[in-house]
Amino acid sequence: MPLTGEEEPNPVDWVREQVEAYRASGGREANTLRDTGIPIILVTCRGRRSGALRTFALMRVEHEGQYALVASKGGAPEHPTWYLNVTAAPDQVMIQDGPEPFDVQVRELDGAEREVWWERSVAVYPPYAAYQQRTERLIPVLLATAL
Description:
Blueprint: H1 13-24, E1 40-46, E2 53-59, E3 61-63, E4 66-70, H2 81-88, E5 93-96, E6 101-108, H3 111-124, H4 127-134, E7 141-146
Antiparallel strand pairs: 1-2, 1-5, 3-4, 4-7, 5-6, 6-7
């Protein structure tokens, strides 16, 4: 069942503009990380405190219909806010990879399974490896599976 409720626009101008352009074009425009040519997906979750819907872009790391959500935050010492929101309600998440969003169930990976998806993620976006070197925390990798 699609998430319903009021959406709070992303506070970062370029992210908000990208989300709006992606949605308006059904994913035909604004579907890469700025000028890198690397595809992105939109992820919508519910804010754990506000209950408002929040949408953000992540690198598109897809394999056999599943998606890795990498909580890198550029190698910052703390997890991104979206990670806290998604893990608080892993059954209230949608992904848009093209014209229509779809519901997913999300779970955090560990061990060998995390390593496989981490390697896939670094293959798509090599800076992830540098981000991991920049921080003492293990960057979480979540797996999103369509419902």
